[in-house]
Amino acid sequence: MNNDDTIFQRLGAEREVLTVSQLNARARNLLEEVFPRVWVEGELSNLARPSSGHLYFTLKDSGAQVRCALFRQHAARIRLQLRDGLLVRARGRVSLYEGRGDYQMILDALEPAGDGALRQAFEALKARLQAEGLFATERKRALPSHPTRIGVITSPSGAAVRDIISVFGRRAPFIELVISPTAVQGREAAPQIVRALERADRAGFDALILARGGGSLEDLWPFNEEQVARAVAACRTPIISAVGHETDVSISDFVADVRAPTPSAAAELLSPDTQAMLAQLQRYHRQLQQCMKVRLGREHLRLDNLRRRLRHPGERLAQQAQRLDELEMRLQRAWRHRLEQRQQRLAHLRARLQHQHPERLLGMLQERLGQLQQRLPRAIEVQMQQRRQRLESAVQSLHLISPLATLGRGYSILLDQQGKAIRSQHETQPGQQLEARLGEGKLQLRVEAQQPHTLPLGV
After folding, report:
1. What is the per-residue pLDDT across 256-272, written as a single tens digit (0 to 9) for each?
2. Which of 383, 412, 435, 458 has its CA 20 to 30 A from that of 366?
3. What does the alpha-carbon distance between residue 341 and residue 358 come to, in Å, rounded to a whole number?
4. Greatest Cα-to-Cα distance within the chain, rounded to the nearest angstrom
5. Neighbours of 162 (CB within 10 A)
């Protein structure tokens, strides 16, 4: 049975129907159990600083990203100037924001991560020199039991030389100390350290101390140079490397015969009256550290189990504070969006009002009236001309069908005394007075006789 089957059996997911809240709660407990505290390196983005004092951001690299929350009590201890794009190392526990179902990290520490390239160069040189055997235990020499003359290769004005002088003055003032001054930081430090090692190795000292105070990886870099490492390996005189603080490790520490955690510890190692006791004490110290580490690890697991079983109110409050911050940011975005919509609406109405302003409309009407006033005389003139042409055409048509036109061609109309037109001979009597109306004037006629047959015109 694989681990996934074990997890699902422990959750009871094969038999139990979970609510969304129960699912998120169990997923959160599972994440926090598997990842109680981890270090993650990445680039800051989407940094948000709500009024609560908490910090929310995203850690990303070239292929992925994870949301992070740094609550106020931890954020107050951060001295970095946080900004988007900053490369950092973050420490915290992997968790789940149950309200939204988002996978996230709850952080308690944040530090810059700018020495990646130096760290890679350090590891590359370390691997190469180790492959050559420069770190081998069999080539390391034992320190003298009763040294009388010791050379110290360090800066004459640094804290390291003062610590060494102070320890020897207190524990073994009879030992002769000879300082070989050299730069311990910067571009010129490595060549100077090499020359100082060569001079000290020829001077016949019982032992040498190569020392420097603490600093960043970049500050300690001269002691990680290959030329310094090979110069340390070439020394015939037993040499102690005491570079930086206890947590600082340099290439010269691996090549030297003995590594001391600090310059003061190097001086104590060469103090002959307490050498055996110091070695025994160091063994006890390491054993105690190991026992305490095992005991603390066991108690830490027990404490984590108790913490998961008993939900601390602070975690609940932290989640509610995160939810409150999220709602506050959403409300601010909603108000900004609403305000932008109202501003756009106001601008639109102002443009419409400007477009329909009475003064503008009056100007358009006045312009239209002027155009109509210019067109009216022309329209009247055209209309009159069209009416005149129609009248003339009608007069001509009327003239063509007028009886007067017929009379003008030589015809006449016979009328009786009552003015009734005579159309047939049967409507007249001999001796009857008739009137003949001509194209010009009229004639008084009398019927002499009636002719029954119609004669052709011209007969």
Report:
1. 999 999 999 999 898 86
2. 383
3. 28
4. 195
5. 14
pLDDT digits (tens, 9 = 90+) for 236-249: 999 999 998 887 88
Query: How far apart are the C-alpha atoms of 242 and 208, rounded to whole Å?
Result: 10
H or E, element range at 59: strand 55-60
Sheet holding 149-154, edge to edge: 176-181, 149-154, 207-212, 239-243, 258-259
Of 95, 142, 89, residue with least CA distance to 113: 89
Beta partners for residue 176, in sequence order:
149
For 338, the token pair is 């609403």
Residue 116 has pLDDT above 60, yes or no: no
Asked whether the beta carbons of 232 and 255 are under 8 A apart, the reply is: yes
Q: Are 172 and 273 in contact (CB under 8 A)?
A: yes
Write the CA distances from 69 to 90, 137, 295, 316, integer angstroms: 11, 46, 31, 14
Distance CA 136, CA 257 (A): 10
Where are any strands of DSSP class E within 175-282? 176-181, 207-212, 239-243, 258-259
Contact by Cβ (8 Å): 168, 175: yes
Question: What does each C-alpha distance from 319 to 45, 71, 97, 104, 326 come to in angstroms?
Answer: 21, 10, 7, 12, 10
- What is the CB neighbour count within 10 angstroms for residue 129? 18
Q: What are phi and psi of 158, to 5 degrees?
A: -85, 170
Pairing of strands 413-415, 102-112: unpaired
**Count of residues for the chain?**
459
Q: How far apart are CA 302 and CA 427, in angstroms?
A: 152
CB 179 within 8 A of CB 121: no
- Residue 195 to residue 190: CA distance in whole angstroms: 9
